[in-house]
Design brief:
Blueprint lengths: L2 E5 L10 H8 L4 E3 L10 H6 L10 H13 L5 E5 L1 H11 L5 E5 L12 H11 L12 H8 L5 H11 L5 H7 L15 E6 L7 H10 L7 E6 L12 H22 L1
Parallel strand pairs: 1-2, 1-3, 3-4, 4-5, 5-6
Length: about 260
């Protein structure tokens, strides 16, 4: 049984992966959904009582926790969303992950996009004037930026079930040395997925991220799903995304097994 580690991004925790854990477990994978440091528990409880050190949480701390887990599982498949997608790319780059899937991923190496939604939301989250104060998400922010393809009532339910507050420093670190990797070296198979309507990570940035990888001997694939927001892993139609990922992983595993 092959291990899959699914890595959540900012403003989420393992609760957001429950559908995917069930999906891949039913297909004979050992699917693990770890919490970032300070993200363990029920989202509603975490919103009501944010951990005291949340505001100082760094990307290196999050990446180290996931990397330690991955090293215990002999090159697992790593599927990550948003900042979790960047972590998946980092672990592929470090030869810790055997296969990587980065969904609506924060891009490495300080890659930016001039999409208005991307610039606006990045500025709100990373605001240097806020210091180490956590960023507190709310239903309005969640709907407009994270789950903009949902109705107001659907977005409110999604917020109540899955949303958490988070550390501004994690996103700030993504734009620094902690978010750097080598896009020119050989690497394990990597799939980058974009959502057409994503207001946080525009599809154009994910495509730019994909094109940055230059090793012709490595598998680096890209797919864009129409009418999907940053909440792509849970919004209606999430099964189509999971099925695409499953079939792609199966194809990579067949290729790897025949080359051994």
């Amino acid at each position: 049984m092959k291990d899959i580690i699914v890595v959540h991004g900012m403003f989420q925790n393992p609760k957001s992966w429950e559908k995917w854990v069930n999906y891949f477990s039913e297909r004979d994978y050992n699917c693990i959904a770890p919490a970032w440091p300070l993200h363990e528990g029920e989202p509603a409880a975490l919103r009501a009582n944010p951990p005291a050190a949340l505001g100082t949480l760094s990307l290196d701390e999050v990446t180290a926790a996931i990397e330690i887990l991955a090293l215990k599982h002999d090159k697992p498949i790593v599927i990550g969303h948003s900042v979790g997608g960047l972590i998946a790319q980092l672990l592929v780059n470090r030869d810790v992950a055997g296969i990587g899937v980065a969904i609506d991923s924060v891009a490495p190496n300080m890659m930016l996009d001039f999409d208005w939604g991307f610039l606006k939301n990045s500025a709100i989250i990373a605001n240097p004037l806020k210091g180490d104060e956590p960023i507190y998400t709310d239903p309005e922010m969640f709907h407009s930026a994270f789950a903009n393809t949902l109705s107001e009532s659907e977005a409110l339910l999604a917020f109540e079930e899955t949303a958490t507050h988070d550390s501004r420093n994690v996103l700030r670190d993504c734009m620094g040395a902690a978010g750097e990797l080598n896009v020119e070296i050989p690497h394990a198979p990597l799939l980058l997925i974009a959502g057409e309507k994503d207001e946080i990570i525009p599809a154009s940035l994910t495509e730019k991220n994909h094109k940055a990888y230059t090793d012709e001997g490595s598998v680096t694939d890209f797919v864009e799903f129409p009418n999907r927001s940053h909440y792509i892993c849970n919004e209606p139609g999430w099964e189509q995304v999971a099925e695409y990922v499953y079939n792609w992983i199966q194809a990579q595993e067949r290729t790897i097994s025949t080359s051994i």
